User: What shape does this take?
Amino acid sequence: MVKVLFVCLGNICRSPTAEGVFRLLVEKEGLGDRIMVDSAGTGAWHVGSQPDRRAQAAARQRGIDLSGQRARQAKSGDFQRFDYVLAMDAENHSELAGLCPPGEEHRLHMFLDFAPELGRSNVPDPYYGGDGGFDAVLDMIEAASVGLLADIRDKHL
Ligand code: 4NP
Assistant: This one.
């Protein structure tokens, strides 16, 4: 089983969206029993909460249901459990690098490194923006999900 963890700040907007998008892709490809998907936040403010209603609405437009997800905080032990720990932005990456046990750094990536064609490294935080922000975030996440699955196939399957 290949294990993938998406991480943002609050675990209510970007990383739950990535969890939902990537899980749907994995299921469509018939790999649901080979790849496990989860998400977490570097912060603890929203622990136990459902994804932001705007994130849920934008995902629902694309046939993705985020309602079953509940926020949790990323922890050091995640670097023992997960093969891929994917930061949504540079700040998340820096926080995760601080949690990462020595020798496990190869598990930590910037998620958008799997979509070099986008020419950007951060998924922008849509929390304080308008609804259009969530659609743009979904587009970036869909692109990087395709690249991530190709990397997993290449290295693990
Ligand atoms: P996320 O967005 O990191 O994509 O889940 C945020 C959600 C909440 C907050 C910040 C970002 N917040 O400060 O509460």
Notes: The longest helix spans residues 132-156. Strands lie at 2-8, 35-41, 84-87, 108-110.
